[in-house]
Design a protein that fits this description.
The complex is a heterotrimer of chains A (about 300), B (about 280) and C (about 270). In chain A, about 75% of the residues lie in helices and about 0% in strands. Chain A has about 300 residues and is mainly α. Chain A has 2 domains: about 40 residues; about 210 residues, MetI-like fold, CATH 1.10.3720.10. In chain B, the strands form 2 sheets. In chain B, strands 6-7-8-3-9-10 form a 6-stranded mixed β-sheet, with helices on both faces. Chain B is globular, with a radius of gyration of 19 Å. Chain B starts with about 25 loop residues before the first strand and ends in a 12-residue tail after the last helix. In chain B, about 30% of the residues lie in helices and about 20% in strands. With about 280 residues, chain B is an alpha/beta fold. In chain B, α5 crosses α6 and α6 runs parallel beside α7. In chain C, α3 crosses α9. Chain C is globular. Chain C is an all-alpha fold. Chain C contains 10 helices and no strands. Chain C has one domain: MetI-like fold (Orthogonal Bundle), CATH 1.10.3720.10. The chains are: A mainly alpha (about 300), B alpha/beta (about 280), C mainly alpha (about 270). Chains in contact: A-B, A-C, B-C. At the A-C interface, α1, α2, α3, α4 and α6 of A face α1, α2, α3, α5 and α6 of C.
Chain lengths: ~300, ~280, ~270
């Protein structure tokens, strides 16, 4: 299957490839035109609203309320971000949010570590040593199906379903985030193994290694740094999403954000956004530092 | 290269082979052949290698050298014929432990695991002897570290033992691969173009090391390479292959320019090997 | 016959120290996160176990009545519309910002670096805030409409696209660019004839990948009340109609996988 291809065939393939990409581009343009037409013609397009004087007046009002320049209906007092007690309270929520994101990555990471090897085609079909068997083949498809399903459903939808089953708190949100990222990191990690240079594993085989020894010495050490790098990249995305999942799963900053909005406590909203940005920046820096450690280690 | 001609604790095992005068060949190829689809990589091939022999495989690229080495290493199954290593049919040897005691292969690309520290790549030569638990434990804290250290210091790179393998130079990685082979201690050492990417001085050194391992163990070494000077210096026999067919099987002294020209298909004189 | 000096205890190399540190941090994070959860009782809802059972039983079969399939199809279309519009707007905003952030326009000098740094900061801010948070803020400010939702998707996505595009534009091989420069091309021409054509396949394939993410983003916009797959899922969940939830989930999965397959084919055909 991986035999040498003639250059002529490659050229021929290359030409067909180009056509597919170009056709896709045209297809997307058509889709874009249709979509925009649908939105702009639709009743609730909001095009008029968005450019009306009143809308911008409202928006300006909202921004001034966020900044505490205009007293809200309820908070007659000082803006929340000038109150040390509010900082401490929201700080606790930020800690919970961070915890939720780390727990989510732990769930996804452990899940992927347990399942990504049989989800790689070259492991399940015995290319990297071992034998293919019906069981392994079935396992491959089963795990790939789970990857696809968990990945395709967004975190928030997972959260909506899970709060029906678990009591609210950090855990349901973490599970929702964990499920979605399990699918993403799992697929990527399995692909790392599939694209791996088979040479080292083959060399280990000729040095007398059995199947599991080959996994331990040849495949896992090669895949692990990539897996961790993906996990850290996803953590950067997850910290942004944790707030959103908090909307429904009632954990961390997200819940407070929703409550403050519905009680028109806009300076609280601003404070939460500050915490949110602080978390995002902190996680980005942490993740970048850890990824550098992985590269040098 | 001035290693003391010692019996070496690391590289040799070789207790099971008959004494040097014995007639039992260590490699016995009975009409083994291999095709990939319509392409005949190796026409049915008969030859034997006795203990202590150092055999060079010569031939243009695509001549079947790598295919032959892979079959000898048990990584490829021949389509026809049968291969006996140390008087045992290879098809009956268990891959892993049994096979790895008899043959070991150094490939052109070395194929070390780049992310592991050197010591683990060397200790991988012991995987055939170790059980699973011991191998896993060794990944956390290296077992039989002295063995790896001895092998590496014999090769002059003991100070690299804890380096990440990918940080080493090409020449150093080659030594790591040889150190792994020393710990594996097979009777037959196979090497696929071990010196093709090295400068002449390095090439000399590496071949001296490889052939030295065999002298200790009364095993055999079979390596593919092109340079006639190196073949004459380190090998006791040279087999020429072309398009999967055996062209000659001669002592290196008979490796004259016309013989080489015929093998490589040159009309004129055999040029400097660097052109290959 | 021991002519080899015995191994001396050596200081642990930096390589090992780094590895140890890394493992320590990761294990500590795992332990901290798992230990911080209150595992003592009350994890599952009262009645959560039954709900779980009902939920999974409802998969056999999902609601496949023609009326509901029509509704699911319409919801899928609305989700696609928002995703496509969001991505196109993100491209329109993100591409020029990406070019500016790459610092490949204008003459070399401090002002160009200042512009690039400023744009990079803006891009970072845009992508720091999740699309749904943008949506909530916009809806509060402007009221609910399709355009607001499209804008909420477009802003963080433009932030991501801009960053990735600036990196792709900078990572092209330099030799052809030097060739263009030596023939007297201005930075704008180097961009148009050198950087863009070389980076275009990667940019296109990344754009298609983002399209897949955009589908998910559009689906969860239901949260602010815009119609689409997420909205219908929420309605069906509230009415405890789990077999409908499954139908909608399967539509969503199929949609995402379809776009994923499309973008994979495009990426493969572009050779990246």
């Amino acid at each position: 299957m991986t035999g040498p291809r003639s250059t002529l065939r490659e050229v021929a393939l290359g030409r067909r490839r180009l056509t597919f990409a170009r056709a896709s581009l045209y297809g997307f343009v058509v889709l874009a035109v249709l979509s925009w037409a649908y939105i702009l013609v639709g009743v609730d397009s909001g095009l008029g609203d968005l450019f009306s004087h009143r809308a911008w007046g409202n928006a300006g009002h909202f921004v001034r309320q966020l900044l505490g320049l205009e007293a809200g209906l309820v908070d007659g007092g000082r803006p929340a971000f000038l109150e040390a007690s509010r900082w401490a309270e929201t700080g606790k929520l930020a800690y919970k949010t961070l915890l939720m994101s780390v727990l989510a990555m732990s769930i996804a990471g452990v899940g992927v570590l347990l399942t990504f090897l049989p989800a790689a085609r070259n492991v399940s079909n015995g290319e990297l040593g071992g034998r293919s068997s019906f069981g392994l083949g079935a396992l491959y498809y089963a795990i790939r199906l789970v990857f696809a399903f968990t990945r395709a459903v967004p975190e928030l939808v997972w959260a909506m379903v899970i709060v029906f089953l678990l009591s609210p708190g950090v855990l349901p949100g973490a599970i929702a985030l964990g499920l979605h990222n399990y699918g993403i990191v799992g697929k990527l990690s399995a692909e790392v193994v599939e694209n791996m240079d088979p040479g080292p594993a083959r060399a280990l085989r000729s040095a007398g290694a059995g199947n599991l020894q080959m996994l331990a010495y040849g495949i896992i050490p090669q895949a692990l740094p990539q897996f961790l790098t993906y996990l850290l990249y996803r953590w950067e995305v997850v910290i942004r999403t944790t707030v959103v999942v908090g909307f429904v799963s009632a954990g961390g900053l997200g819940r407070e954000f929703r409550l403050s909005l519905s009680y028109f406590q806009y300076t609280d909203v601003a404070l939460i956004i500050v915490w949110y940005l602080a978390l995002v920046i902190a996680v980005d820096l942490l993740s970048a530092g850890l990824r550098r450690l992985i590269r040098s280690g | 290269m001035s290693q003391p001609p010692s019996t070496n604790e690391v590289g040799g095992s070789g207790a099971s082979t008959p004494p040097n005068g014995g007639v039992r060949p260590i490699v016995d190829s009975r009409s083994i052949g291999k095709s990939f689809g319509a392409l005949t990589a190796l026409a049915p091939l008969d030859f034997t290698v006795g203990p202590g022999e150092r055999v060079a495989l010569a031939g243009p690229s695509g001549s079947g050298k790598t295919t032959l080495l892979y079959i000898l290493a048990g990584l490829l199954q021949p389509d026809r014929g049968e291969l006996f290593l140390d008087s045992q049919a290879v098809s009956r040897l268990r891959p892993g432990k049994e096979l790895s005691e008899i043959v070991g292969l150094i490939q052109q690309q070395l194929d070390l695991v780049p992310q592991l520290p050197v010591v683990q790549n060397v200790l991988a030569g012991r995987l055939g002897q170790w059980g699973l638990l011991r191998s896993l434990a060794s990944l956390v804290s290296a077992r039989e570290r002295e063995m790896a250290y001895n092998a590496l210091s014999r090769l002059g790179i003991a100070d690299k033992i804890d380096e990440r393998t990918s940080r080493l130079s090409g020449g150093e990685q080659q030594r790591v691969a040889i150190a792994r082979l020393m710990l594996q201690a097979p009777q037959i050492i196979l090497a696929d173009e071990p010196v093709s990417s090295l400068d002449p001085a390095r090439a000399d050194e590496i071949l001296a090391l490889l052939t030295d391992l065999v002298e200790d163990s009364k095993g055999a070494v079979i390596a593919s390479l092109h340079d006639p000077e190196l073949i004459k210096k380190y090998f006791s026999r040279v087999i020429g292959l072309r398009e999967g067919v055996l062209q000659f099987d001669i002592p290196p002294q008979q490796l004259t320019a016309p013989v080489l020209a015929a093998l490589y298909g040159f009309d004129r004189d055999f040029p400097n090997n660097s052109a290959l | 016959m021991i002519w080899i000096e015995p191994p001396r205890p050596r200081p642990v190399s930096r390589f090992f120290e780094t590895r140890r540190l890394l493992s320590l941090i990761l294990v500590a994070a795992l332990v901290w996160s798992v230990a911080s959860v209150d595992w003592t009782g009350g994890i599952v809802h009262s009645g959560g176990g039954n709900a779980l059972k009902d939920f999974f039983l409802a998969l056999f079969p999902p609601d496949l009545s023609p009326g509901f399939l029509k509704l699911a199809l319409a919801a899928s279309w609305q989700t696609v519309v928002h995703a496509v519009a969001g991505i196109t707007l993100a491209l329109i905003i993100g591409l020029p910002l990406g070019v500016l952030a790459s610092g490949s326009l204008g003459n070399p000098g401090r002002s160009r670096l200042a512009v690039a740094a400023t744009v990079r900061f803006v891009l970072a801010f845009m992508r720091s805030i999740h699309e749904l948070v943008w949506a909530v803020l916009f809806v509060t400010a402007f009221g609910l409409s399709s355009l607001v939702v499209v804008l909420a998707i477009a802003i963080p996505y433009a932030g991501i696209l801009g960053r990735i595009y600036s990196e792709l534009l900078n990572d092209v091989p330099q030799e052809p660019l030097d060739g263009l420069r030596s023939s007297g091309a201005s930075p704008a021409k180097v961009l148009l004839y050198g950087r863009l054509p070389m980076a275009l396949p990667e940019m296109l394939s990344y754009g298609f990948y983002r399209f897949e993410c955009g589908i998910r983003a559009a689906a969860i916009m239901s949260f602010v009340g815009i119609r689409g797959l997420g909205y219908e899922i929420q309605l069906s969940l509230n009415d405890l109609l789990f077999s409908q939830v499954w139908t909608l989930l399967l539509f969503l999965v199929a949609l995402v996988l379809l776009v994923d397959y499309w973008s994979t084919r495009v990426r493969r055909s572009l050779g990246s």
